[in-house]
């Protein structure tokens, strides 16, 4: 009997050891002694299966089946959000599952072409929980450090931003991206004897006047032609910028009385370009400002379908208004 008991105990011990080894091989930490964190990025719209596969490839988990089991057992399947996660290889599968299904350490932010800096502040307030003071500091302090950086240099792009980033750091991040993307254009504007600030203002007008890239060079040509003959630009988007936020809307529809707004941005009343850009334009609008289409047109409109129609004279423009609007 003693021999039988010993055999059973040895068997159970071996079974326990084997079970522990198997468990560790499936669910254990990849490197239990490594607390150093590195950023694991989950792209927007990436399928969960691919994310889990990359966790294995990047050495954060030992087994994809085991990790899927953990997600299913903890009812966390489908809960991995896009963003950046600071992960260490000393986390086991259970700990890692909790980490990547919690709030990310970095969030994806998409800043669209043609919005103004105040809209960016509202976006950040929603994404990062900015206080009203954070928003005010962004609008009135951190984006007013230089005259030429009041507007237009908060580059529209897709960003992966740490949730701990301060509003002044974010302003500099967007400016840095603008400087990087705009750098090739500076010399090109200089070669045409155009200040980069002038080019950026015109790009912002083009961006707000159409969402169709193919129309941008023609609108650019009309704007440059009006400036050349000292004609008022008479661009509705500048009135929208001057009006600011109306109710809960930016860029509200222009009314006839808006043409008499007392503002340096009112291009119906003031000749030349507005004091600053009126939005943050994308590369297509900047390219169009640099390379306008030569045209005899001075007027343009978009019909309800979005098709652009231009005219050389005001009389032709009125006919287009009657015909298309």
Characterise the protein shown here.
A two-stranded antiparallel sheet has the order 1-2. It is elongated. The protein has 3 domains: 22-104, 2-Layer Sandwich (Dna Ligase, domain 1); 106-183, no CATH class; 192-294, no CATH class. 48% of the residues lie in helices and 9% in strands. By secondary structure, it is mainly alpha-helical. It has helices at residues 2-27, 48-57, 64-73, 93-100, 117-128, 132-142, 167-191, 196-209, 216-228, 236-243, 283-290, 314-324; strands spanning 37-42, 83-88, 106-110, 158-162, 299-302, 308-311. Strand 5 and strand 6 form a beta hairpin. Belongs to the transglycosylase MltG family. The record marks 209 as: Important for catalytic activity. It is an enzyme of class 4 (lyase).
What is this structure's SSE topology?
Layout: H1 2-27, E1 37-42, H2 48-57, H3 64-73, E2 83-88, H4 93-100, E3 106-110, H5 117-128, H6 132-142, E4 158-162, H7 167-191, H8 196-209, H9 216-228, H10 236-243, H11 283-290, E5 299-302, E6 308-311, H12 314-324
Antiparallel strand pairs: 1-2, 3-4, 5-6
Helix pairs in contact: 5-6, 7-11, 8-9, 8-11, 9-11
Keywords:
mainly alpha, 3 domains, two-stranded antiparallel sheet, MLTG-like, EC 4.2.2.29, transmembrane helix, membrane, lytic endotransglycosylase activity
| Uncertain runs | 9-15
Overall average pLDDT? 93
Approximately what portion of the residues adopt beta-strand conformation? Answer: 5-15%
How many structural domains does the protein architecture include?
3
Per the principal axes of the C-alpha atoms, what is the gross shape?
elongated
Summed up, the helix count is 12
Task: Determine Rg (CA atoms, Å).
Answer: 29 Å
Instruction: Give the strand order of the largest sheet, numbering strands 1, 2, ... along the chain.
Output: 1-2
- Write down how many β-strands occur, each being a DSSP E stretch of 2 or more residues: 6
Percent helix: 40-55%
* Order of secondary-structure elements: HEHHEHEHHEHHHHHEEH
Q: Which structural category fits the helices and strands?
A: mainly alpha
GO molecular function: lytic endotransglycosylase activity
Function: Functions as a peptidoglycan terminase that cleaves nascent peptidoglycan strands endolytically to terminate their elongation.
Protein name: Endolytic murein transglycosylase
Organism: Candidatus Amesbacteria bacterium RIFOXYB1_FULL_44_23
């Amino acid at each position: 009997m003693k021999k039988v008991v010993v055999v059973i105990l040895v068997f159970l011990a071996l079974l326990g050891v084997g079970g522990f080894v198997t468990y560790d091989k499936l669910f254990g930490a990849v490197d239990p002694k490594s607390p150093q964190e590195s950023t694991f990025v989950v792209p927007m719209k990436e399928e969960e299966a691919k994310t889990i596969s990359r966790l294995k490839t990047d050495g954060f988990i030992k087994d994809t089946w085991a990790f899927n089991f953990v997600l299913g057992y903890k009812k966390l399947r489908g809960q991995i959000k896009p963003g950046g996660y600071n992960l260490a290889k000393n986390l086991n599968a259970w700990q890692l599952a909790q980490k990547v299904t919690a709030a990310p350490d970095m969030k994806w932010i998409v800043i669209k072409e043609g919005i103004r800096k105040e809209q960016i502040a509202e976006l950040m307030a929603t994404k990062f929980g900015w206080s009203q003071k954070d928003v005010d500091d962004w609008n009135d302090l951190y984006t007013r450090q230089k005259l030429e950086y009041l507007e237009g240099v908060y580059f529209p792009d897709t960003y992966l931003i740490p949730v701990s980033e301060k509003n002044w750091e974010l302003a500099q991040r967007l400016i840095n991206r603008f400087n990087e993307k705009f750098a090739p254009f500076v010399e090109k504007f200089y070669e045409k004897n155009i200040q980069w600030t002038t080019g950026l203002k015109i790009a912002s007008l083009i961006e707000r006047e159409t969402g169709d890239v193919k129309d941008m060079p023609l609108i650019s040509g009309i704007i440059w032609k009006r400036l050349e003959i000292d004609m008022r630009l008479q661009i509705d988007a500048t009135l929208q910028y001057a009006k600011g936020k109306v109710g809960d809307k930016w860029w509200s529809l222009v009314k006839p009385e808006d043409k008499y707004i007392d503002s340096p941005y009112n291009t119906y009343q003031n000749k030349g370009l507005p004091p600053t850009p009126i939005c943050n334009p994308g590369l297509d609008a900047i390219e169009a400002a640099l390379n306008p289409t030569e045209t005899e047109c001075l007027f343009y409109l978009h019909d309800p379908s979005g098709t652009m129609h231009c005219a050389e004279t005001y009389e032709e423009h009125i006919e287009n208004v009657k015909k298309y609007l």
